[in-house]
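Pair request: fold both.
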Amino acid sequence: MIMATGGPSEREFDVVLYGASGFVGKLTAQHIAQSAPDYARIAVAGRSARKLQAVLDEIGGVAHTWPIIEADAEDPGSLAEMAARTRVVVTTVGPYAKYGLPLVEACVNAGTDYADLTGEQLFVRDTIERFHERAQETGSRIVHSCGFDSVPSDLNVYQIFQQALADDAGELGDTTLYVKALRGGMSGGTVASGRRQMEREAEDPALAQVVKDPYTFSTDRELEPDLGSQPDSGFGKASDIDPELKGWTATFLMAPYNTRIVRRTNGLLGWAYGKQFKYREVMGTGSSVAAPILAAATSGGLGAMWKFGPTLFKRAPKKIIDRILPAPGSGPSEEARLKGFFVIETYAQTSSGARYKSTFAQQGDPGYAATAVMLGEAGLCLALDRDKLSALTGVITPAAAMGDALPRRLRAAGVKLETERVAERSTVS
């Protein structure tokens, strides 16, 4: 085991971007080069110094001067040495269930902060069980899901909580994230992560029950409230969320993951949102004649995938699956990335009857351009805004770690992030 020789303030680098030669890694490097202040000490890391240098040469400017660290997921010693040299490791190397645990362990042992893009429930569950207490001892912040999964989900609820607290409006109750608009494709890395999780579920059916638990990431399962069923299905009328919304809603692909992150934030904060906090995520399908059909088909298709996907990946020939699914490390053209965007609204009602809406909107393909901005700003926030971070350490969430600091950075990077009080309903549910 290689331990850091000094505290985080004495490290050689502020941020090391691990996996910078990959598709999203390169986009993240580009954003950090544009956003980081001149005094920030940035380095990149990966298996191939040659590929990393090619990326830095292409980005140009200040990135051309960044040091390169050779580190390999299959060489724990190299990961330990890398972690010991920096305040924060930002990683885009996935699937995380396959490559992530050795790096998390290295960061925990070194007392180094860590940020990733994972949307893998079982990987996060593994890190909580194996490293949470140790990370608290060493002062390490292991912050998962610092991209489209799950920064908009986590920060929208946190912003509402803050506003309700300032207004003395009571605790949060029924809360729903509504994907109002979205344009962009699914990344090969996301597909690979989902595939790996389903393969694990096929190997061990008991893991399927772990995934279904709405409090998969709980800080203390016995202390969680019993709120009955909290299904991830999202089929229904948008007006059930807020009277001003029109049309229909369907299940949101990332709801089974994002909802667990948000519930973990509530637990990490000592259930500050409230013990009656009930959270779900849906996506709008419009208000056309075909909208309810599309909503029902989407919800049914995702439900079937979650239920039968593990069996499919267990029985279908690997070569056929490889041919059908997009490969990790690939992505859309720059033109397509720039045309992408998303608008997410979160609605919440408090115990006093007050209602709030928080909006998170960003230009850029959600899984690529927008995610690179969120991850890059999260890494810089952990490294450079340490006096504004929460005192929490361990395996934590974006809002629990950076809820008071990250929104300022995101707004400066062009993200719309705002909260408002909306008209109350005539009856309190």
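--- second member of the pair ---
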Amino acid sequence: MSDNKSDHPEVPDGAHRPADAGPAGAPAPSSSPPAGSPSSSPSASPTGSPSGEAAQRASTDVPESASTVTPGAGEAAAASTAGELPKQAPAGTTPSIPISETAEAGKSAPAPAPHTEPASTGDTAASAAPQRPGAAPAGFGQAPDFTAHHPPPPGAIPPEPPRYLRASDSAWAVFGRIVVARARQMFDRAGQRITQRTLRIGVSARIFHPEPGAQGLRGKTLQYLEESIAHWVMSRDVIVFMIPTVGHQGMLHPSNIRLRDYAKHLDGLLLQGGADVSPQTYAEVSPRPEWPGDRVRDMYELELLHEFVESGKPVLGVCRGCQLINVAFGGTLYQDIASDVPTAGVHVSEHYDQHRHAVTFPQGSTFATMFPGRREAIVNSIHHQAVRNLGRDLTVEAVSAGDGLIEAVRYRRSPFVVGVQWHPEFHRAGGPELLDCTPLLDTFLRAARETRF
């Protein structure tokens, strides 16, 4: 197969030399294009020279014009111009180079510098000229002019100062507001910790006195807490503390802790049931020696009750606690219901907490509001003593349905000082028969939360 390409002619200085051109002055072998080639036809060039058409098409920078050049025409132009010097291009124009030569030369030669407009055309002409893809923007690489003034665009700066600034503000005024804000934040956090702290309810202790001549634990003073009363309070996520007695004489281990310290640090007091209140506490004499009551416990719980009342803390008394509240405010008791009130119903039996009777809530009482829709309820009954003469500033909250004996009292001068004659801790919450005393517990704990500080 014959080679149709010819050696490239020598070009003068200043013109592009093809990458595959031979040494200067070497004669190029001539070869005629094959018959039937488009470049051999006289009508291929309007000027009569095939090389003129190829050179003219190759000299333009427009991609569309370069794509119209046929390979045959470029080969014919290279063959016809072998041994001839190219024509000089007019001043200010780009030299005409065939496409095949520019493709080979572009691999090693740098791209020509982009054509720039004269300075007289101005910035408008430069910005209006189309920019080649990937070319740097106008003015790229120039040194910045730090003396030039570049004002912000309209509307970038508000016409007035921000609202959080005041025209009369001084450094001390701003500092004062900062201090006030910090102090308010500290008080808010402290108040939040106080209100969200778990309630602490104190329960008075039952006392087991030593038996004469007994040995072991029976010869010691025991203070204990009945399990059901503690679990009833703890059912509302409350911490329970049993409050021990505080002796002033004969202590093996002297201490400066007093009952007022418990009233200061606890949120409420619950007086649990147990032994009878001694008749000496309300200035009476016991008719029977087997009912002496517990004078030691009376003095301990009375002091504890008054400390919590003076601290503004709520108090809830159960059974004996209800009787003690009445005695604390000057009331008296029936020492034995069966003996003192022969017409009264049975309030205690060998069935203990299984014995029950009905109670009613007087119209307008707090219990009528606490248990809405309930004018009568069934409660347990485990007491042989009861309120006789009502103490000062006490109101009746519930009475026995059969005989009218007082079953619940409330002290009017405190946020919450209430006593009930039955044992609410023995009532199952939501039980179908006995009164659900959860509202009573919730009211007591709500008062404890509201009066804690």
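Observation on the second member. The radius of gyration is 56 Å.
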